[in-house]
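Wed. Picked up where I left off yesterday with Omega-amidase, chloroplastic. The coffee machine is broken again, so keeping this brief.
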Amino acid sequence: MPTYIQGQQHQTSACASLNTMEVPTISKFKVGLCQLTVSSDKNQNLIRAHNLIKVAAQQGARLVVLPEMWNCPYSADDFAKYAEDFENGDSSPSFSVLSEVASCYGITIVGGSIPEWCNGRLYNTCCVFGPDGKLKAKHRKIHLFDIDVPGDISFKESDSFAAGDEPTIVDTDIGRIGIGICHDMRFPELAMLYRAKGAHIICYPGAFNMSTGDLLWELVQRARAADNQLFVATCSPSRDSAGCYAIWGHSTLVSPFGEIIATSEHEETVVVAEIDYSEIQRTRESLPLEKQRRADIYRFIEMDH
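Structure written out below (tokens, as returned):
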């Protein structure tokens, strides 16, 4: 299965070395996680996103991450209404704002996600913009969130969205970034693929609900970071956002050892924290998981299933 590495316009084959990790231009920098409050007013959401990105940039963030569905309420009734066709600039104000702000502040933006119209289908899509304001990558949510817990929550994202079918890795001046959206984080195979292709950090915009958030939000992101010995950044809307369910919040940055570097509570805020990629190498040298991995055994397990 080829992995598409965007930003350098090339592909790497699945037989590439598991230990491949290029040294980025900048190895120590600040990341900003913009946990914004999403309202039913799209223009206000754009203004709020711009303002929080500005706050992060003024505090020195070189990489800024937005939440899942930051331009519209997280509700099946609203996705199509707020959706944008990225090929049509006049009908894509959210896309345009992120491009302009990235260029204005000279930063890389992992633009959370917004509903995207493309060829008559609706996708949950994350756009990544470089410091020049140009689109570097686009990730369509691969694993759609369908849940039915009697007496608690019932939601079927697959009724609204089509699933993406490609992993997304983007090369930037602040490292190689793997992208996932919310429920993508639940699947370790995707994170393992990103690690195998040399990602330094995986960014997961998300909107976990109160039940899955309490049980799984911190647990899963720490597991993805620790198992793959890389950084993980998550960004959520605030809890008082509009939508069909209450959102957990708690945007977080996790170290390659699975330690929480910085996190928030549930209100609107900007988390700014430092990333030092030398921690990746130190972690992998002290605990060489790749050398200890028993792929010979795992192959037989996969064959049995």
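Quick read: DSSP finds eight helices and 17 strands in the chain.
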